[in-house]
From TrEMBL:
It holds the Pfam family MarR_2. It comes from the Bacteria. Residues 33-132 form the HTH marR-type domain. GO terms for molecular function: DNA-binding transcription factor activity. This is MarR family transcriptional regulator. InterPro entries: ArsR-like_HTH, HTH_MarR-typ, MarR/SlyA-like, WH-like_DNA-bd_sf, WH_DNA-bd_sf. One of its GO terms (biological process) is response to stress. SUPFAM superfamilies: Winged helix' DNA-binding domain.
Amino acid sequence: MATADPDRPGFVLPLLLLAGFRTLIDDLHRELARQGHPDLRPMHGFVFQAVGVGGTTATDLGQRLGISKQAAGKTVDRLVALGYLERVDDPSDARRKLVRLTPRGHDGLRRSAVVFDQLRAGWAARLGADRVAALEDDLRAVTPADLFRLDVPGWFGG
């Protein structure tokens, strides 16, 4: 069966969306490295969001990310070594450890938010603010309401 528009085959749309995502993330990480966070990787942003404000356990972190407890533990170990996360006693259960963001982790998140605003402004300057807003509105119209799903790392991993 031929595509409805041979100049715009269907498989190109997800590739362009992924390329746009990749461009933003690569630009973000270049700037974060310049600002003193050279070890942060795309996966780490998902981890920071899954850890949340109050912290979480490694088991819950793995579930939120859609990865194994072992993979979550290895990621936490790396981020603890880099100074972005810490393990502390759970005040509600002495047998458990909570993983939470350190001040360095909070700084990385704060800087990420600022850089994303700058990147969006750059796209608006290049494409036009109305076109970027329309793109965002159109994407909201075709995506589920829970647009930020933390299980993307597990989903990509299969």
